[in-house]
Amino acid sequence: MSILKFGLEESVKVTLDYDSGQRVDGDYGTQFKFGCNNGEDMFYATPTLATLIDQTTGGEGKAMELLIKKTIKVDKDGKEIPIFTVNGKSMDDLSLPNPVIANSPVGAGFAHKDNKLSLLEVAKMLSEHEYRIRQLEGIIERMMLGESEEAGEILAENKERVKARAEAELPF
């Protein structure tokens, strides 16, 4: 059994052996192991890719043919972020359900959100957090390299926003 790797801009066709991947916690964090191609191959997927596969197959992926491709997305700071597509769709192409708001048992006018998140929602949140962390890392890196003019402007802009928000909250 060989382990498939996804090269950049290379489409890999796989036929899943099971409906979903097996969760594996290891040195690379949480991943999902998928058997494919009639037991000949396997691959490891990030939670985001596993969610994308699950959403594409509707949870019934056994014997389903998928085309998986790894591409690079460049963010506004010029950082390269690897993203996956399954059958031509990325996480951005999937729509998240609106959060469910239920009536509260404590009386009219009160409501609470259902706090149960789907795997897709968690993966989407993780992707957003990873993106923001990479932005911050880029700003810090530029500051340390002496390219602090842009970073200084960002810090000054944030300082002004915090000051304006604090002044708006004053009762007098």
Compile the SSE list and pairings:
Layout: E1 2-3, E2 11-15, E3 22-26, E4 29-36, E5 41-45, H1 47-57, E6 65-74, E7 80-86, E8 101-103, E9 111-113, H2 119-144, H3 148-168
Helix pairs in contact: 1-2, 2-3
Indicate the overall shape: elongated
Question: What is the H-and-E element order?
Answer: EEEEEHEEEEHH
Low-confidence stretches: 96-113
Whole-number mean pLDDT: 76
Total of DSSP H or I helical runs spanning 4+ residues: 3
Helix content: 25-40%
Structure characterization notes:
With 172 residues, the protein is an alpha+beta fold. The protein has one domain. 34% of the residues lie in helices and 28% in strands. It has helices at residues 47-57, 119-144, 148-168; strands at 2-3, 11-15, 22-26, 29-36, 41-45, 65-74, 80-86, 101-103, 111-113. β4 and β5 form a beta hairpin. α1 runs antiparallel to α2 (119-144) and α2 crosses α3. The chain is elongated and about 65 Å long. It starts with a strand and ends with a helix.
